Amino acid sequence: MTATTLSFPSPGLLRRWLPSLAWILALGGMVAVLVLHIESVQAARGIQGGFGFLFQAAGFRISESLLAVSPDDPYWMSIAAGLVNTLTVAAVAIPLATALGIALGLMRLSTHPLAARCAAVIVAPLRNTPVLLQLFVWYGLLLRLPDMRQAWSPLPSVLLSNRGLALPAVQGGLPYAAVLLLAVAVGWRAKRRWGNGATFATLAVAALGWTLLPAMQVDLPVKRGLGLQGGWQPSIEFAALLIGLVVFHAAYIADIVRASVRAVPVGLVEAGQAMGLAPWGVLRRVIAPYATRVALPPYANQCLALVKNSTLAIAIGYQELMAVINTAITQTGLALEGIALAVLAYLTVALVLGGGLSAWNARHARHDPGDTHGARLSDRPLWREAGSDPHPWRGKILSAALTVLSAVSAWTLLEWAVMHAVWRGDPAACANAAGACWAAVGENLPLLFFGTMTPADRYPGFIACAALLGGIGLTLGARRLPARVRAATLAVLLLIVVSALTGWPWGGALIGPQRWGGLLVTLILSIAALAAAVPLAFALALLRRSGSRAASLAAAGLVEAVRGVPLVTQLLFASFVLPMLLGGGVSKFSMALAALTLHTACLLAEVLRGALQAIPPGQMMAARALGMGPATAYATVIWPQVRRIAAPAALGVFVGAVKDTSLVSIIGVFDVLGAAKAVVAGTDWRPYHVEVYLAVALLYFAASLALSKVARRMEAHAA
Question: Which domains does the chain have, with CATH numbers?
C-alpha cells in the first residue's frame, strides 16, 4: 500500500503567480467596494438599483427614429430607438465623409497649385477647430433657412427649410436592396474565380428576380398648408449633425488619402505610365490598390471616431443613444446602470465595426511576391509626364474656373467680414447691416473671457490668463533659451497664476473653481489635464509592458475601454458617479478635469508604449549593469529617449485634448464655448451666433495651429 503524498507548488511558480493574483484581488476588491458604495448611496436616496427599470414605461417620446416608439413603451425600446438613430447617422455619414475626404485628398495632391491650395484652406480650419463648435455653427446656419412656406428646392421633390430636409421616400424597396446587395456580393466573388462574365450573369439573374418582387412606391413630399406631407423628413438636428460629422471627418480622411498616395513608390507609377496607361488608369489600377493598404488602418480609426462623435448630438437636441440614456438616468437616478448600458453599446459597435475593418485590412494587406517594397518615395507621385497631356485646354479651363471661384469667394468674405461689418454698437446697430456683426463679440468680451465672474474677480482672472498665455508661448516658442531660464520663468508665471487666484500673499479673496469661467476655465483645464495625463500615461504604458500578466491586462483593459467609449459618455459618468463616490461637494470643474485627464492619459499611453518598444532592450540592461536602480534608469536613460521619439505624436494627442475641452460645456462647465452659448442664448445677440462662434473657433484654431507647427518641427528634427 502506497502512501498518499501532497504536492505543493514550487517556490518559483508561487513567485511568478502571486503578484498577478494580488493584482486581481486588489482590482476586484476596489471595483466591488465602489459598486457597493454607489448602491448604498442610491438606496439612501430611495432608488432601487438594477436593470429592472428597462421594462418600465419610459414616459418620453422619441421624436425621430426608424423604430417607432411611444411614451408608453418600456425603456429598452427607447434605448433601442436611440441606438438605431446612432447607427443611422453613422451609416449615412461614413460613406459621405469618405467620398468627400477622397475628393479633398486628391485635390491636395493635384499638380494644379490653386486646386491644392484651395483644398488646404478648406481642410486646415476643419481639422483645427472642435467638432462641437462646428455643429453649433451648422445648426445655427440651418436655422436661418426660410420657413416651410418658402422652402428652398435645390432639386425636384427635395425641400430644405428651417424645419429640416424633405426627401422622396421609397416604400417597399428593402427587398430590392437585399437582392441587389446579395447579387453584388455573389458577383464580386464570382468575378475573382470566373471573370467578368459571371458578374454580368449574376446581375442579370438579380434583375430577373426584381421582376418577381412587388412594385416599389415612391412617396414624394408635398406642401400642405403650413407643413409637409409624405416623403422622408429628417429634422434640422439630424441635418446639422450629419453635415458637421461629414465635413469634420472628411478633413481627416483627406490627409489620410494624401499620405497614403504619397507612400506609393514612384517606380510603380512610372511602370504604369510605361505600359501606356492613361492618368485615370494609373490612378485606378496602380495608385489606388497600393494606397488602400496604407490608408485602411487610420481610416478605420476615423470611422470609429465618427461613431463616437455622434454622441455630440446631445448638445443640439437630436435623440441618439447617449441622449436617450441621459434622459433615462435623469428620470430614474440609475447612473451606474445607464452608463454601463452606454459603455456596452459603444464598445460593441466599436468591436463590430473595428473587427470588420480589421478583416478588410488584413485581406488587403496581403502582398504578392512581386510587390516592390523599399522603393524610393517622392514628394508626389507622377500623375503624368510633363508635356504629355493630350488635352491642355482642360487645365486652362480648371485654372480659370478656380481663379474666378476663389476671387468671388474671397471678395464676398471680405465684404461680409470687413467692409460691411459692424464693429461697435448694440443689436439695433447690426439689425440692418449687410455684413458681420462683430459688435456681438466686442460687447461680450468680458463674458467670453471670464464667464460670470464678478467685476472684482475679473482683474485677478485677467492676470492669471495673461500668465498662462505667457507660459504657453514660452513653452512653444522660446526654444533657444537655456533650459534653466525657461524653467525659472515658468515657475514665476505659475506662481503669478496661483497668487492671482488664491490671493496669496497679499491677503486677497480666494477665487475657487466654482467662480471661474470663460477663457480662464479653458486654459486652466487644458494645462491641468495635460500636466496630470503625462505621468498617468507613462504609468499605464509601463504597466502594459510589465512582466505581471494581471497588471498588463488591467492596464490594457482600462486603456481600451476608455479609448472605445466616447468622451461625452465619460463626462456624463463623471458628473453622475463622482458625486456619489466623493459626496456632494465635487465641483463640475473637478468632474471635467478627471474625465479629460483619464481620456488623454489613455490616448497618450499608447503613444508612449510605442516609443518604449522602439528603445532597444540593451539600453535598460546597460543602465542596470552600471548599478542604476529601475527608477533611476527610467528617469535618466529611458525617459529622455521616449520623450524625443514620442514628442510629435504626443503633441497630436495634446491638440486633440485642447479641442476636447469644448465638450465640458455639456455637463455645465462654463468654459469659453459655454460662454459663447450664453451670449447667443439671449434674444438680443441670437441672430449673430455665427460671428460669436467664429471668434471662439479662432482661439482654438490658433492653439491647434501652434501645437501642430511645434509637432512638425520636432518630427523634422527627429528625422
Answer: 75-150+235-364 (1.10.3720.10), 516-718 (1.10.3720.10)
